[in-house]
Write a structure and sequence with these properties.
Elements: H1 3-6, H2 12-15, E1 38-40, H3 42-47, E2 53-58, H4 68-81, E3 86-90, H5 94-105, E4 109-115, H6 121-129, E5 133-137, H7 141-152, E6 158-159, H8 165-171, H9 173-182, E7 188-192, H10 197-211, E8 220-226, H11 231-234, H12 256-265, E9 269-273, H13 275-289, H14 295-309, E10 318-323, H15 331-338, H16 349-356
Parallel strand pairs: 2-10, 3-4, 3-6, 4-5, 7-8, 7-10, 8-9
Antiparallel strand pairs: 1-2
Helix pairs in contact: 4-5, 4-8, 5-6, 8-10, 9-10, 10-12, 13-14
The structure holds ligand F0G.
């Protein structure tokens, strides 16, 4: 393949420009996000006794290693177009990593509010290294978002959380890509639900592609919250959300209505999965198919396992699931849950042979 063929992905805004609210004058701030692989997970399906096709949208392979880059290229480009100098967000770690990276590239100041002690170490490292002003509040994500909304009202900072509609516009491109990669829309789409922006965005994307006849069907949207942070499933905000999946440790999602509309309009389903179920799915997909995701992403796979056990996925269905963030963002959980430790031996061939049973 020629060099140009290998380098021709222009990022999601240029690729899907005609579906996005940008003009020729929008200064596009991109790191080449999008075009992430759709990885078939045959072994995973076989291991749970399923009779359907499962494809993992591996969003951990975006430039800052989560799906947030799709929304952030839009939010930062539009902020730049509008002359903003300072952007701000509340985050459980991935939005802040993406905001910090794209703001750095756009030469803007970035301020991130994170829940002190409750973000994965890789995400903290990103916010710091990309040079954002990192504020760890003694509170949770919902409290951080409340402060960010208040600061947004001063007009001095541009909020780049998913309450910024350009974020949703960028994130909907994941649905376009899935349709382009599969040559059709899936029958079911599974994803983790935290602040509920992504389920809102995916559904918007699937509907738009369908309405312009670039796909011939609409999937049923299946969303999963962590049991300790399941306000939409339980029907009320959760004061003290808690889960090992810190990315979705959210008690009062901003896009609650969007999630409910996606589920109702698509004849979908929303449910919750326990931390044990999340960690079991997390480990299963790593060992069955060589895909490492962060715990929040595994909530969608715990959902696939649950829906399959409940007989909700007919044989032969085409199922997609969003692997929202890379597993290496959270090495502490990876090591803690692997179930193995390295075997330390003296540096001899015999010692190694003994360990492997040769
Ligand atoms: N998966 C990961 C890895 C996430 O980081 C998030 C959200 C979600 C799933 C849920 O997506 O909020 O659109 O429903 N992370 C946000 C953040 C809250 O601050 O990084 P959602």
């Amino acid at each position: 393949m020629s060099a140009d063929k290998l380098q021709n992905w222009p990022g999601v805004i240029r690729q899907y420009q005609r579906h996005l609210p940008v003009t020729e004058d929008t200064p596009i701030v991109t790191l080449g996000e999008g075009n992430t692989p759709l990885v078939p997970a045959h072994n995973f399906v076989e291991s749970i006794g399923g009779k359907f096709e499962l494809h993992l949208k591996y969003e951990g392979l975006n430039p800052t290693c989560s799906f947030k880059d799709r929304g952030m290229t839009m939010a930062i480009s539009k902020a730049k177009e509008n002359g903003a100098e300072v952007v701000i967000c509340a985050s459980t770690g991935n939005t802040s990593a993406a905001a910090a990276a794209y703001a750095a590239r756009a030469k803007m100041q970035c301020v991130v509010l994170i829940p002190n002690g409750n973000i994965a170490v890789g995400k903290l490292a990103q916010a710091l290294l990309y040079g954002s002003t990192t504020v760890a509040i003694e509170g949770n994500f919902d409290e951080a978002l409340r402060i960010v909304r208040e600061l947004g009202e001063t007009g001095k900072v541009e909020v780049v959380n998913s309450i910024n509609p350009f974020r949703i516009e960028g994130q909907k491109t994941a649905s376009f890509e899935i349709c382009d990669q599969l040559g059709r829309a899936p029958d079911f789409h599974f994803l983790p639900v935290g602040n509920a922006g992504n389920i809102t965005a995916y559904w918007k994307g699937y509907k738009e592609y369908f309405s312009v006849k670039l796909s011939d069907r609409l999937p049923r949207m299946f969303g999963y919250q962590a049991a300790g942070a399941a306000p939409i499933v339980d029907g009320a905000p959760v004061e003290q959300p808690n889960t090992v999946a810190t990315a979705i440790r959210i008690g009062n999602p901003a896009s609650w209505d969007g999630a409910q509309a996606a589920i109702a309009e698509s004849n979908g389903h929303i449910n919750k999965v326990t931390d044990e179920e999340i960690l079991a799915a997390y480990k299963r997909v790593a060992t069955s198919d060589g895909v490492i995701v962060e715990p929040a992403s595994a909530a969608s796979l715990a959902g696939v396992i649950k829906a399959n056990a409940e007989g909700m996925i007919p044989d032969g269905s085409v199922v997609t699931a969003t692997m929202s963030g890379h597993g290496l963002k959270d090495p502490d959980n990876a090591i803690k849950n692997a179930g193995f430790e390295p075997t330390v031996v003296e540096a001899t061939r015999e010692a190694v042979m003994k360990v492997i049973g040769l």
